[in-house]
Amino acid sequence: MLRTYRTDDWNTYRMDWHNPFVELEPPEQEIAVVNGALQMLYVLGMLPHTQYDEARFQAMRRAVREQFEIPWTAITPRMQRLLYAINAITQPQNMIAAGVFCGNTFISNAGAGVGPGACYTAQNLIGVEIKPEEAERAERNVRRIDPTGVARIVAADAVDVAAEFTEPIHLLYLDADGDAKQGKGVYLDILEACYERIPKGGVVLAHNSVNCADRLKYYLEYVRDEANMMASVNMIFDVEGLEVSVK
Ligand SMILES: C[S@@+](CC[C@H](N)C(=O)[O-])C[C@H]1O[C@@H](n2cnc3c(N)ncnc32)[C@H](O)[C@@H]1O
Q: Helix, strand, or coil here: 46?
């Protein structure tokens, strides 16, 4: 079933990819937009509650702004907040993020479990990046705020990592852009490689559900089929979008 959470300004809320921490709106508006998204997930039974710690979130945002090398990113402040909140609320023991580039998307998720924004203790928070030089930069970035190694970056194909991870995957974040032929269509390959190890209640997040909807056609059909996922919602509050699915 197609479900959407849509703000009126989704198409005019625009960031500068090279200055990702510029404030785009009053803080209370950013919080309200994300709270609306969380509330919808809660009403649908996809989240147990909607509460997360604002001070910890701000500590994560500050640490990333001050310590990460980010050549560019399309993760808007709203998206960063929603990713952090979903992880803080669901507290995944094992999280895999596929296609993490410089690590900003990864830490938006993993920052709920490690570093100054941590609100729980995780087991494995794994970011996967196929380009070795990007994986190295992401690992350098992550090490600056997480000395523990719970959060770590692997230079590999996310399809292989998803297939070979033997433990339950409580949260899977998808952002890999595949090869020239497949593009973001690789999301479905990654999900199918580990679908059996995602427990009931496990969360799957897919970035670019709006601007890459054509390439994600088969992926979106799959997660919106209630034979595969309990429910799925397209979060349309920026031009990129995030499909949030719960098994
Ligand atoms: C476009 S970037 C994601 C950027 C992110 N949305 C942001 O705004 O910060 C996608 C990344 O996925 C990586 N990638 C592509 N195919 C992959 C695969 N099969 N496994 C792991 N990473 C992959 C690419 O090298 C690239 O760094």
A: coil
* Residue 225 CB partners (closer than 8 Å, separation 6+): none
Count Cβ atoms within 10 A of the Cβ of residue 164 and give its class: 0-12 exposed, 13-18 middle, 19 or more buried.
Answer: exposed
Residue 3, classed as helix, strand or coil, is coil
**pLDDT, tens digit, for every residue of 67-116?**
999 999 999 999 999 999 999 999 999 999 999 999 999 999 999 999 99
Q: What is the C-alpha to C-alpha distance for residues 166 and 222, in angstroms, rounded to an integer?
A: 23
- CA nearest neighbour of 68 among 104, 108, 23: 104
247 with 200: CB under 8 angstroms? yes
Ligand 1 binding pocket, CB closer than 6 Å: 73-75, 98-99, 101, 104-105, 128-131, 134, 157-159, 175-178, 186, 207
- For residues 149 and 134, the answer to whether their CB atoms sit within 8 Å is no
SS3 at position 182: coil
The answer to whether 115 and 58 are in contact (CB under 8 A) is: no
3-state helix, strand, coil in the chain (%, to 5): 40, 15, 45
Beta bridge partners, 95, equal 125, 171
CA of 99 to the centre of ligand 1 (A): 3
- State in Å: Cα 240 to ligand 1 middle: 14
Let me know: does 245 contact 61? Beta carbons within 8 Å: no
Range list of β-strands (E), 29-184: 94-98, 124-129, 151-155, 171-174
All domains of the chain, ordered by start, with CATH?
A: 4-246 (3.40.50.150)
pLDDT, position 180:
86
